[in-house]
Amino acid sequence: xxxxxxxxxxxxxxxxxxxxxxxxxxxxxxxxxxxxxxxxxxxxxxxxxxxxxxxxxxxxxxxxxxxxxxxxxxxxxxxxxxxxxxxxxxxxxxxxxxxxxxxxxxxxxxxxxxxxxxxxxxxxxxxxxxxxxxxxxxxxxxxxxxxxxxxxxxxxxxxxxxxxxxxxxxxxxxxxxxxxxxxxxxxxxxxxxxxxxxxxxxxxxxxxxxxxxxxxxxxxxxxxxxxxxxxxxxxxxxxxxxxxxxxxxxxxxxxxxxxxxxxxxxxxxxxxxxxxxxxxxxxxxxxxxxxxxxxxxxxxxxxxxxxxxxxxxxxxxxxxxxxxxxxxxxxxxxxxxxxxxxxxxxxxxxxxxxxxxxxxxxxxxxxxxxxxxxxxxxxxxxxxxxxxxxxxxxxxxxxxxxxxxxxxxxxxxxxxxxxxxxxxxxxx
Length: 428
Description:
The chain is an alpha/beta fold. The chain is built from 17 helices and 18 strands. The protein has a six-stranded mixed beta sheet with strand order 1-10-9-6-2-3, with helices on both faces. The chain is globular, with a radius of gyration of 21 Å.
């Protein structure tokens, strides 16, 4: 059921209104003895999940005993990131999700179902996995907190993704990511229903009785006229309805449909958030359906120091590079190490232009040799920042003094860009 919802294309919820909405929902849920909060990590800093987690701690106090950031495959949060994102929450409450070891299996989604929803593209069973805390922690409430926004793996981020992928294990993450990649990112992005979501929903419908009550606290974040981020919606509930309502609003708020393809895009990656191409390739995921054939995507990445968030995935990215779907699938068939790390293979597919347009990475720390080795073009960050100064451009189309026209995006995590005439127009 839905415990609270408030949102529209023009809504601007203040922190006080967000707090009041959360408290109203928690009052309706009723008293709880032991609560686990699962917010996103620092890569979703702008989700307002930090504030919501603090409000939940204010409400429950000693009964909120654990905070488990939904890292998925991401690197653990640093002390500085925890302090910045969750300043009102005691650090002792935080626990690190280890996606390779701290896992319990809930059950199986049959291979016949996975094959059916994928249109025969894959034929394997999927194991629903979660962090052991969810099963063994004796909680009577799990608050799954996060932002609904277009996403390359699940179409729209959050809801049961936060549980089964955010706190999931290697098998669940690998197979779900690969399912979405081979089905086709362009067939997934911005859509509520898709094969990956159907698999997650199957797990929710058949296996969730093995978990405590899960209540989803979902925000939709947009931009105001002045470009500042605002909370457009807050949706709280214990089933899919709140996610659907949030997704429908996010489709209107976070998806920008363009009349013509982008010939030159410049995307800025905040160094406090984007330190790897595993995360920074959101610049590619979120713009690929808007880029013109033979266009150029310039990525300004001052914090970029690695490829993967995990040593093994970093090694695989360096070894195989971003070569597009056919080459990556051939590599999967030929190399057991990719077969054992299908999420890495999926990432290599997602992070390619499929040879349609040029991708020029301008890293702050990675070297030219490293960038070229994974089949991106290299750009000198200092020179490119002088040419495309992110402090002087507005989001959207900019005409530079030399007459060049560029489409600027200050944070790719906040939206999805696509040409109106392609498949994206089927979702709005």
